[in-house]
Design goal:
The complex is a heterodimer.
Chain A: H1 2-27, H2 34-41, H3 60-74, H4 79-90, H5 105-130, H6 145-159
Chain B: H1 2-17, H2 21-45, E1 59-61, E2 67-69, E3 77-83, H3 88-104, E4 110-116, H4 121-130, E5 137-139, H5 144-149, E6 156-160, E7 166-171, H6 177-188
Parallel strand pairs in B: 3-4, 4-5
Antiparallel strand pairs in B: 1-2, 3-6, 6-7
Classes of the chains: A mainly alpha, B alpha/beta.
Chain lengths: 160, 190
């Protein structure tokens, strides 16, 4: 009876602790998945291995960068904050898409302008093909030396 | 007949007189673009700082938060070493660089600066601790310093004399402690 008297509060305390532990575990943030890390990594390029996106680059430097992204995600940083961190650390060239400022604007402006200019040139070319040549004068008004020559020739032949 | 031909000649003359704004704009755009390309090419062909050139100023913010400017180091020989924690050849020379720094430090005539290239801070700090490096080290923020020197990789070491003139470039790791000293010692007497 005495043993039961002591064991009941111990069991209750243990149950309570187990419950609290479970509760605490369920509220812990989940570690970022590889997909979450790669979603950001594919938007970045490491200057060491140019032209290879960070998500598929196999070098140790890039592996460290991916771990850094994972760490920042687990700290609650969002994609924009992480990208800005990388830009601050390593410069604009780490970004897959150049930021629209300074001379970078040309990258965004030139292609649509070139396409529009091409469309306009094509439109003008088609228009000129449709229209009859304005310089072409009516045939009867043009002096036809060959006809005159033939007529004179025929007349001469008739005379003979 | 005469009337028709005069009409045609009038319209062609009118077309010649009409300002071709579209054409002017296109040509202006093309010329502008060529100018930008030329500037870019010129910048690309400027090349790295070569031995004998005056080194432009740069700032290095160390991992401890101290900012070091090259111009403030005039009168000292500067050993500028580019490294990274992921770089295996850097490990070959790390201990020798530290030994050389400890040799020159008491004299105060030589300063060693470590520039951590495209690295992550925890790994960089671990690297410095592993090799017991005590001279100032900091990240190459925005890869500005490495772009200024146009480094090809790491490790690379640039030795700048007391007048901020580049005197020696070491691509790849030093062969050893003596090799480092043999490049620095001749500059001390100048």
């Amino acid at each position: 009876m005495k043993r039961l008297f002591y064991s009941i509060p111990i069991m209750m305390t243990a149950a309570l602790m187990a419950f609290r532990l479970g509760q605490a575990q369920s509220t812990l943030p989940q570690p970022p998945t590889d997909d979450q890390v790669n979603a950001i990594a594919k938007e970045l390029y490491c200057p060491v291995c140019e032209n290879i996106p960070l998500d598929v680059c196999g070098t140790q430097a890039c592996a460290q960068w991916r771990e850094l992204i994972r760490e920042k995600l687990s700290q609650g940083w969002n994609e924009a904050q992480i990208k800005q961190y990388f830009v601050d650390q390593y410069g604009d060239r780490v970004l897959a898409t150049p930021p629209a400022r300074g001379l970078n604007w040309l990258v965004y402006i030139i292609p649509p302008v070139a396409i529009l200019a091409g469309v306009y040139i094509l439109y003008r070319a088609f228009q000129s093909w449709k229209q009859p040549a304005p310089e072409a004068l009516p045939q009867e008004t043009q002096p036809s030396y060959s006809d005159e020559y033939v007529m004179r020739l025929e007349e001469e032949l008739r005379k003979r | 007949m005469e009337h028709t031909s005069s009409q045609v000649s009038d319209s062609s003359a009118e077309a010649r007189k009409r300002p071709r704004w579209g054409g002017i704009l296109v040509w202006a755009g093309v010329l502008g673009l060529l100018a930008i390309l030329a500037l870019g090419l010129r910048r690309a062909q400027q090349g790295p700082i070569t031995v004998g050139d005056k080194v432009p100023n740069f700032s290095l913010t160390t991992f401890e938060g101290e900012t070091i400017n090259l111009t403030d180091l005039k009168g000292k020989v500067v050993v500028l070493n580019f490294w990274a924690s992921w770089c295996k050849p850097c490990e070959q020379e790390a201990a020798d660089l530290e030994a050389a720094w400890r040799y020159y430090q008491p004299g105060g005539e030589v300063i060693f600066l470590g520039v951590d290239y495209v690295d992550t801070e925890p790994e960089a700090r671990a690297y410095l601790e592993k090799f017991g490096i005590t001279y100032p080290n900091g990240p190459d923020l925005g890869t500005r310093i490495s772009q200024q020197f146009r480094i090809q990789g790491v490790p690379e070491t640039y030795i700048i004399d007391k007048n901020n003139v580049l005197r020696s470039v070491q691509i790849g790791p030093y062969r050893g402690y003596e090799h480092i000293r043999s490049t620095i010692d001749p500059l001390l007497g100048e």
